[in-house]
Design a protein that fits this description.
The chain contains nine helices and six strands, in the order αααβααβααββββαα. By secondary structure, the chain is of the alpha+beta class. The chain has two domains: 29 residues; 139 residues, Glutaredoxin (3-Layer(aba) Sandwich), CATH 3.40.30. Strands 2-1-3-4 form a four-stranded mixed beta sheet. A two-stranded antiparallel sheet has the order 5-6. Helix 4 packs across helix 5 and helix 5 packs parallel to helix 8. Pfam families: Thioredoxin_7.
């Protein structure tokens, strides 16, 4: 009888422990943001960003365009919202295609692209947050960096503000000065 009670107590403790650990594990799981999960993921942590940028500089020289580097990551809701905005807004999308080469530079725990950011925008991620933009001329020289917060409108971006930024950064505008 003592062994029977002892077995029940041990079994109860084990079962209780498993339930507690199971509840604790699920309580620690981060909930998935449905909006974040639904958006296209344009950043590629596995990419060799400097090699890609070097190729863009060659192409930019031939096409006489500037390059916009959008710094951020697939973890960043505002980075993904900006990508969605420039894909879906016909005016902005057409202007970018006509005037720029565009590249998403990854910053994430998997790949912080430290050499790239040190070269083009040292410590700007800390200063601006994400996303932020680096504008290069057709030779790969940094023309400007820009934070994105003042381009926001609600949970998206303001077309007029984005177009002003793009027009000020285009090769046509810079070369006419």
């Amino acid at each position: 009888m003592k062994n029977g009670i002892k077995n029940w107590v041990v079994s109860g403790l084990l079962l209780g422990g498993l339930l507690c650990f199971g509840v604790g594990a699920s309580a620690q799981t981060k909930p998935v943001n449905p909006e974040l999960a639904s958006l296209e993921k344009p950043y590629h942590p596995e990419a060799d960003a400097q090699k890609d940028i070097d190729s863009l500089v060659v192409l930019a020289g031939k096409e006489k365009k500037h390059i916009i580097l959008q710094a951020g990551g697939n973890w960043c809701i505002w980075c993904l919202r900006f990508n969605k905005f420039i894909q879906e807004n016909k005016t902005v999308n057409a202007y970018i295609k006509d005037n720029f080469l565009y590249y998403h530079v990854n910053w994430s725990p998997e790949n912080k692209n430290e050499a790239v950011f040190d070269r083009y925008a040292k410590d700007k991620g800390k200063e601006y947050g994400y996303p932020f933009f680096i504008v290069l001329d057709s030779e790969g020289k940094v023309l400007s960096t820009r934070e994105s917060g003042n381009l926001e409108d609600g949970k998206s971006y303001d077309e007029t503000k984005v177009m002003t930024f793009l027009k000020e950064s285009s090769a046509k505008a810079v070369n006419s000065k």
